[in-house]
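The methods section describes the discrete structure representation at length, but only in general terms. The central task, working out the structure tokens from the amino acid sequence alone, is never made concrete. Nothing conveys this as quickly as seeing an actual entry. For illustration, here is how one protein appears when written out as sequence plus structure tokens:
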Amino acid sequence: MTDGVTAGVAAEESALGASVTRRNCLMPSLVGLGLLSIGERCWAGGQIEEPLIDSVRSALGSAVRNAAPPIPEFSSTDARLHYLRWLGAMSERLSKKKKDFETRKEFLQTVWYESKRAGLDTALVLGLIQVESNFRKFAVSVVGARGYMQVMPFWTRALGDGDAGKLFHMQTNLRFGCVILRHYLDREKGDLFLALGRYNGSRGKPQYPDAVFANKRLWEFVPSK
């Protein structure tokens, strides 16, 4: 990318950042919904362990084990510029949760990669992460769910090597979370409301899906013209 394009993207990111006040955007939505206290407790993830037929287990296991690095690829310069503008806007919004720019960049790049890889809306995945862990890498729920996407340890036995400690690794956690949500979405024939309920172990109840949808709106990106 040329220096001129880089400067243009940086200027646009700066303008986007200046136009968004994030001081009280993230926490009040969750506190108001009863999802987080002032101490930032996470909403306990609670996927329920269910038997998987061999073909599903094999497909999910293969998706989880794919070791491709989380490096986004783009079909055009416009697509790459869109990503860079998204990255700048999301980095600004996430800055109060993750102070270090490189840490934010790596996290957002991985969220983008894993959500796209699983065919999921990136804003939805960020909204789910906010509800589940409030962007805390080492969050643990009262039922033992772990990491950013609050993945239950039984998934490492079903699809991996059984080492639940790996769920605190950023890409591993995001990979598992996105693959699991995609599985639930397929199982519910595209019904996102029911898939989210299944992800949380509260299928059919509105509180959790409604919370994710509300927080998804905080992470939607509309590029300026």
About this structure: The chain has a mean pLDDT of 81. The chain has one domain: 3-219.
